[in-house]
Amino acid sequence: MHDFEALARAAGSDHTKTAEHDLWKAAVSLERWYFVASSSEDDAQPVVGSIGGSPFVLAFTDEAQATEFSRRRAAHRGVDDAPVVHMDPAEAVSYFQTLREAGVEGVLFNAGGAAFQASMDEVIDRHARYTRGR
């Protein structure tokens, strides 16, 4: 199991690209990425939020963080928790290409203190780069 909080902190403070590479290698090596559904409906999509006025899909590196985010989001809105869904990274990257075409600009992982983000193009590129040869 990876310590994404430590990896994200290191990537944010390292003046070289090594820590950033380590963070993304760990992220793409996961079996699943987790998403909070926008509702409890069968056709619900992952939540898309706004960062600096730009749309970003919210993703999580573990189910517990996604579940806690769903709980907090529901409490804030006064509704029931939305389900947590998951995709393997390759499936998610394929989905991200569709989101990119719809105007979603990036992905925010682990919303909160240990968050890290990248544009859709960067996530797609990093997935391809770090899974090559596996």
Supply database-style keywords.
two-stranded antiparallel sheet; globular; 6 strands; 134 residues; 4-stranded mixed β-sheet; single chain; alpha+beta; 5 helices
Topology of this structure?
Elements: H1 4-13, H2 18-29, E1 33-36, E2 48-51, E3 54-59, H3 63-77, E4 84-87, H4 89-101, E5 106-109, E6 116-119, H5 120-131
Parallel strand pairs: 3-5
Antiparallel strand pairs: 1-4, 2-3, 5-6
Helix pairs in contact: 1-2, 2-5, 4-5
Question: How would you characterize the overall build of this protein?
Answer:
- This protein is an alpha+beta fold and about 130 residues long.
- The chain is built from five helices and six strands.
- A four-stranded mixed β-sheet has the order 2-3-5-6.
- Helix 1 (about 5-15) runs antiparallel to helix 2 (about 20-30), helix 2 crosses helix 5 and helix 4 (about 90-100) runs antiparallel to helix 5 (about 120-130).
- It is globular and about 45 Å long.
- About 25% of the residues are buried.
Summarize it:
By secondary structure, the chain is an alpha+beta fold. Helix content is 46%, strand content 19%.
Query: Can you write the helix and strand succession as a string?
Result: HHEEEHEHEEH
- The largest sheet has its strands arranged as 2-3-5-6
Radius of gyration: 14 Å
Give the end-to-end Cα distance, rounded to a whole number of Å: 19 Å
Structural class: alpha+beta
DSSP strand (E) fraction?
15-25%
The number of helical segments is 5
Q: Residue share in helices?
A: 40-55%
* Overall pLDDT level: 92
Low-confidence region ranges: none
Shape, please?
A: globular
Number of strands: 6
Main pleated-sheet profile? 4 strands, mixed
